[in-house]
């Protein structure tokens, strides 16, 4: 009888320990707030976010929005759904009050790529400044001194291109590069048709172009099309920015090699890092308030590492 009671007591203790351990494991429900897809890169963010959640067996819900008001409403919808962590990719001002309220509820919020002024918010982002810095380094290695470089600027992108240009020119200043042959051209946006039209015009205006400093992969795709259509063969380098699989395939091709195509990686796959951070916070782990992912230059030398045959989104 004593042995039986001892056995029952031991079993009860095991069950109690299991129940306690189970109770200590937080429920993971990932709420993802993102803008409607207006650019291939944004589509890539959604692709990688869903891929990470599916691959890791996470319960998740994605809410997309067309404007600030819709995103605010979407954040609350995710809370009502039962999100225990939220990863947000806001594209508009005015998110502060909703996000602060959610943080104050005890729900970790991790912003992807964009700053929002809230107490207790976390951020995962690429390094726009370093993208420009590393792109300048790549171009100089390809074209040498005092080259004819066309800079494709997109002023409407705000701090994105401002930081990329700053990094670009800071590297040139560091090495005392002769910038007298560098010309800047303003584009209305990043899409490839804009890059095509702008590059075609530039090639008419500039009798010699040694390199294009393009800040976006899709812009670069359009630029390479313009180069081919113009039959220009003197271009030795063209950069980009993002993580576009179509552009990566061009980099890997003879067409890309002919113009020295490369990209400063600012991959939408970084959204997966943001989800990881959110889960770490939920588990009570210590995390840096801002995590900046350093830039990698993707060129013919390493592009095979970045090709994803399953990704037909971006």
Structure notes:
With 314 residues, the protein is of the alpha/beta class. The protein has 2 domains: 24-124 and 268-292, Response regulator (Rossmann fold), CATH 3.40.50; 128-265, 3-Layer(aba) Sandwich (Rossmann fold). It is 47% helix and 17% strand. The chain contains 11 helices and 13 strands. It has a 6-stranded parallel sheet with strand order 2-1-3-4-5-12, sandwiched between helices.
Keywords:
314 residues, alpha/beta, Rossmann fold, 2 domains, six-stranded parallel β-sheet, four-stranded parallel β-sheet
Strand order of the largest sheet: 2-1-3-4-5-12
The global form is elongated
What is the makeup of the main sheet?
6 strands, parallel
Average per-residue pLDDT, rounded, comes to 89
Instruction: Write the element-wise H/E pattern from the N-terminal end onward.
Output: HEHEHEHEEHEHEHEHEEHHEHEE
């Amino acid at each position: 009888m004593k042995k039986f009671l001892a056995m029952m007591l031991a079993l009860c203790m095991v069950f109690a320990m299991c129940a306690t351990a189970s109770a200590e494991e937080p429920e993971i429900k990932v709420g993802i707030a993102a803008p409607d897809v207006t650019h291939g890169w944004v589509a890539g963010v959604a692709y990688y976010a869903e891929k990470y959640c599916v691959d890791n067996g996470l319960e998740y819900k994605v809410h997309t929005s067309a404007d600030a008001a819709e995103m605010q409403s979407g954040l609350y919808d995710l809370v009502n759904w039962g999100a225990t962590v939220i990863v947000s990719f806001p594209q508009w001002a005015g998110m502060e009050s909703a996000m602060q309220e959610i943080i104050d509820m005890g729900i970790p919020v991790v912003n992807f790529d964009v700053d929002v002024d809230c107490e207790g918010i976390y951020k995962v982002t690429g390094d726009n400044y370093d993208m420009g810095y590393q792109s300048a380094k790549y171009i100089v290695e390809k074209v040498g001194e005092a080259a004819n470089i066309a800079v494709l600027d997109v002023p409407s992108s705000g701090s994105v291109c401002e930081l990329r240009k700053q990094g670009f020119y800071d590297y040139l200043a560091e090495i005392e590069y002769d910038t007298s042959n560098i010309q800047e051209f303003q584009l209305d946006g990043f899409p490839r048709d804009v890059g095509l039209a702008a590059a075609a015009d530039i090639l008419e205006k500039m009798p010699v172009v040694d390199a294009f400093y393009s800040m976006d992969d899709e812009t670069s795709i359009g630029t390479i099309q313009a180069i081919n259509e113009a039959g220009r063969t003197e271009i030795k380098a063209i950069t980009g920015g993002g993580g576009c699989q179509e552009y990566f395939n061009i980099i890997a091709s003879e067409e890309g090699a002919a113009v020295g195509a490369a990209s400063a990686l600012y991959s939408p796959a970084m959204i997966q890092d943001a989800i990881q951070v959110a889960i770490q916070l939920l588990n009570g782990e210590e995390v840096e308030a801002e995590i900046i992912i350093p830039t990698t230059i993707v060129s013919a030398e390493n592009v095979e590492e970045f090709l994803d045959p399953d990704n037909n989104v971006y």
